[in-house]
């Protein structure tokens, strides 16, 4: 199936008019459904480079990023006060993605220059916005580093250098594994083509991650009708308690 | 089997939760406690966000106490009048508790407060129970009968009221105060407060032991139901699938617990409970005193 798709892509490339290098993209799925038994998901991202002119001398590199919805995050640091460890300092980061993966064809600092990284916010550190952070603590970078470290341990932030396979400077593919602890939202997916550290082409798309079925229903109910949701949880608790008591008595008699 | 919890937004093993509920159920069946003081720290441990663990814990206690109260009502060991007075204090306390909880959450100190409460109360109550049950065992070996003080300062207060089931003529102020204190703790710590309520009713109010557990459970149902509603409407942190899995495990565990409990002596049971309470307390205290491996923590409340 994948192979056929690639052939079709290759045919399309020949028919297209002359332009600079461009990305043609395919996704194994552009929707991820979080069901009750969701255990994470692998997404295959593949595509081709569309060009009319001859392949330039400098080698082509591909960078693929997938970013979850960005929300403000408060990072707190513990310190020893009165003999016990308590939260003391905090830094509020304006926006940090709940999930972030960067996959490249080579080492990130080789395939992307520092200025291009600043402009396009590609590396994990740059993807986190922390405008006012420096005023909240002297060593604000250490709070950002801590955020990256904690999320990296949970596979929520991934840097996978060399994970993008590139054939004949034209066909590329990689697979991004989304962990089970996923928040819902639009996951922005970007593909960059670079030569000698400069971005020559960029393509954006989104992967839609949503709770479905019972998960969706419970979550919506808890936000939109919290009263109903509260009563529902109590009703379940009371019913379970009553059934336990009844079953226990039936067992005793029998 | 992994299951995705829609409110906690984490994926956990369903059998782990069933097992956890089961273990706590066995203990609550053995000792007649709600088990909230065990389940909330255990939920922290497996990675449920603290706010969700506390709110869902209260919902789970509603179920286990309701089941137990039905059995006590049949045996007529519930003092409904005393329960109502405790309840009035408890509801006011639960409202205050959720207010304090939200205020501390904005300061980022909620984990600390919850842990400190646990260490303090588990330590004091565990130690008291341990000493008391060791003495009781010693006394029964010597053949002495246990004695109870009948009159203290509590009986000198105004607004007296007659509590027939408990056989008491007592001011309404001490039960109101006890209810208030337990209500605050229930909301902050995500526990029913049974392990504080029971000693307070025996030692401060002087109620007979046989009506204490039923009456305590009676008012715990309402206080925890009230805090569940408050958490659900103000914090949106009650996770129904999580509560349900804990419940199923708990209900089955409680039956085995009761069977084990019937084979042990009262003093032996109390010593075991005291040791367990002290062990949980020791573990939590250690976490506060030793340097944590990760000094930084993340909060989503902006």
From TrEMBL, chain A:
Residues 1-20 form the signal peptide. The keyword Transmembrane applies. The chain crosses the membrane at residues 228-251. Keywords: Membrane, Signal, Transmembrane, Transmembrane helix. InterPro entries: CHP02186-rel_TM (IPR019088). It comes from the Bacteria. This is Transmembrane protein (Alph_Pro_TM).
From TrEMBL, chain B:
It is a multi-pass membrane protein. One of its GO terms (cellular component) is plasma membrane. It is found in: Cell membrane; Membrane. InterPro entries: TM_pro_TauE-like, TSUP/Inactive_protease-like. Keywords: Cell membrane, Membrane, Transmembrane, Transmembrane helix. Its main location: membrane. It comes from the Bacteria. The chain crosses the membrane at residues 12-39, 51-73, 85-104, 110-131, 178-204, 211-230, 242-262, 269-291. It holds the Pfam family TauE. Belongs to the 4-toluene sulfonate uptake permease (TSUP) (TC 2.A.102) family. This is Probable membrane transporter protein. It comes from Roseovarius marisflavi. The lineage of its organism: Bacteria, Pseudomonadati, Pseudomonadota, Alphaproteobacteria, Rhodobacterales.
């Amino acid at each position: 199936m994948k192979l056929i798709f690639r052939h079709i892509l290759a045919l399309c490339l020949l028919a297209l008019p002359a332009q600079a290098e461009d990305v043609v993209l395919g996704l194994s799925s552009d929707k991820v459904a979080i069901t009750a038994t969701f255990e994470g998901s692998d997404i295959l991202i593949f595509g081709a480079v569309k060009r009319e002119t001859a392949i330039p001398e400098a080698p082509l590199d591909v960078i693929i990023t997938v970013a979850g919805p960005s929300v403000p995050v408060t990072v707190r640091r513990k310190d020893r006060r009165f003999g016990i460890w308590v939260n003391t300092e905090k830094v509020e980061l304006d926006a940090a993605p709940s999930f972030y993966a960067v996959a490249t064809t080579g080492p990130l600092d080789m395939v992307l220059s520092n200025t291009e990284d600043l402009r396009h916010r590609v590396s994990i550190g740059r993807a986190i916005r922390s405008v006012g952070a420096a005023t909240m603590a002297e060593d604000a970078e250490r709070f950002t580093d801590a955020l990256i470290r904690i999320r990296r341990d949970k596979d929520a932030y991934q840097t996978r250098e060399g994970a993008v396979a590139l054939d004949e400077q034209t066909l590329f593919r990689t697979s991004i594994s989304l962990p089970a602890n996923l928040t819902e939202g639009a996951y922005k997916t970007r593909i960059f083509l670079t030569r000698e550290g400069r971005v020559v082409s960029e393509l954006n798309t989104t992967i839609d991650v949503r709770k479905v079925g019972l998960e969706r229903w419970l979550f919506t109910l808890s936000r939109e009708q919290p009263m109903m949701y509260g009563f529902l949880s109590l009703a379940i608790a009371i019913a379970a308690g009553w059934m336990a008591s009844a079953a226990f008595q039936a067992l005793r008699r029998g | 089997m992994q299951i995705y919890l829609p409110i906690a937004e984490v994926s956990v093993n369903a059998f782990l939760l069933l097992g956890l509920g089961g273990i706590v159920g066995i203990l609550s069946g053995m000792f007649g406690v709600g088990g909230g003081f065990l389940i909330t720290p255990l939920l922290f441990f497996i990675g449920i966000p603290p706010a969700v663990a506390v709110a869902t814990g209260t919902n789970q206690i509603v179920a286990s106490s309701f089941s137990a109260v039905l059995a006590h009502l049949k045996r007529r060991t519930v003092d409904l009048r005393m329960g109502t007075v405790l309840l009035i204090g408890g509801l006011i306390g639960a409202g205050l508790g959720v207010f304090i909880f939200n205020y501390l959450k904005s300061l980022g100190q909620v984990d600390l407060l919850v842990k400190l409460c646990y260490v303090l109360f588990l330590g004091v109550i565990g130690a008291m129970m341990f000493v008391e049950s060791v003495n009781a065992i010693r006394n029964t070996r010597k053949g002495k009968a246990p004695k109870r003080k009948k009159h203290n300062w509590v009986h000198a207060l105004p607004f007296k009221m007659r509590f027939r089931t408990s056989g008491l003529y007592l001011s309404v102020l001490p039960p109101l105060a006890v209810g208030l204190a337990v209500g605050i703790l229930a909301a902050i710590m995500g526990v029913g407060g049974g392990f504080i309520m029971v000693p307070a009713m025996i030692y401060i109010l002087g109620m007979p032991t046989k009506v204490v557990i039923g009456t305590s459970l009676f008012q715990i149902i309402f206080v925890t139901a009230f805090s569940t509603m408050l958490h659900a409407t103000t914090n949106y942190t009650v996770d129904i699938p999580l509560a349900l899995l804990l419940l199923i495990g708990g209900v089955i565990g409680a039956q085995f617990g009761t069977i084990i409990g019937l084979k042990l002596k009262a003093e032996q049971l109390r010593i075991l409970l005291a040791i367990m309470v002290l062990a949980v307390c020791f573990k939590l205290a250690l976490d506060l005193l030793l340097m944590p491996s990760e000094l930084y923590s993340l909060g989503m409340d902006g």
